[in-house]
């Protein structure tokens, strides 16, 4: 087997080899009967990464084969291709991780704010008194993964659910209470509109933003 083939199999399948070694090392110490039912899935998750590393490996070997001149020059071209490709992938992965991290942070901040918004809302106090506990349940999200509507649980008996719309403009986030309902999400007639049967009348403060 040539060095080029070894490189393709070694680096190209590196995520698969790494997952296998990790499964074996952890498996030597794990006494859980369920470990070997779950651990092999790590190999499945490694396959998409192998698509990326295989593409880099094949492109590097291709650059070596197509480059003219001496062997040293061919190795230099292949090394430059490898460094550029791995750097580009690392940059894209970092960008994706940063955007994902920012999205999760924005969602956590919004969730904390919407809970405070409902807990302090006059219409919620009118319907439920001053609730002992308020927490966020389900949320509708836009194509970017950001919530556009929350189903907020109000901890009273019987339980109430505040449906809050989220409006984002020019980097600012505002909340608006659409309705308060007595019907939990799983029992509502329409999942297209969370404000249906069981909604309570709201006072003039319902549209108060936050």
Characterize the structure shown:
This protein starts with a helix and ends in a 10-residue tail after the last strand. α1 (3-12) runs antiparallel to α4 (41-66), α2 (14-29) packs antiparallel against α4 and α4 packs antiparallel against α5. The mean pLDDT is 87. Strands 1-2-3-4-5 form a 5-stranded antiparallel sheet. The protein has helices at 3-12, 14-29, 35-38, 41-66, 71-119, 122-128, and strands at residues 134-141, 147-154, 160-169, 172-181, 199-200. The chain is elongated and about 85 Å long. It has 6 helices and 5 strands; from the N terminus they run ααααααβββββ. Helix content is 53%, strand content 18%. The longest helix is centred in the middle third of the chain and has 49 residues, at 71-119. The chain is an alpha+beta fold and 210 residues long.
């Amino acid at each position: 087997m040539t060095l080029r083939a070894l490189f393709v199999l070694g680096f190209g399948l590196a995520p698969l080899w790494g997952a296998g070694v990790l499964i074996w090392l952890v498996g030597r110490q794990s006494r859980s009967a369920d470990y070997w039912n779950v651990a092999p899935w790590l190999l499945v998750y490694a396959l998409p990464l192998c698509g990326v590393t295989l593409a880099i490996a094949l492109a590097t070997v291709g650059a070596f084969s197509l480059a003219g001149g001496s062997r040293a020059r061919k190795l230099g071209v292949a090394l430059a291709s490898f460094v550029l490709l791995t750097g580009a992938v690392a940059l894209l992965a970092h960008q994706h991780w940063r955007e994902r991290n920012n999205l999760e942070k924005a969602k956590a901040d919004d969730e904390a704010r919407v809970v405070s918004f409902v807990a302090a809302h006059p219409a919620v106090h009118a319907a439920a008194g001053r609730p002992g506990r308020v927490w966020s349940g389900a949320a509708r999200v836009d194509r970017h993964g950001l919530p556009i509507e929350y189903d907020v649980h109000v901890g009273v008996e019987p339980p109430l659910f505040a449906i809050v719309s989220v409006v984002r403009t020019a980097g600012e986030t505002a909340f608006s209470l659409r309705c308060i309902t007595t019907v939990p999400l799983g029992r509502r007639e329409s999942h297209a509109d969370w404000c249906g049967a069981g909604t309570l009348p709201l006072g003039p403060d319902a549209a108060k933003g936050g």
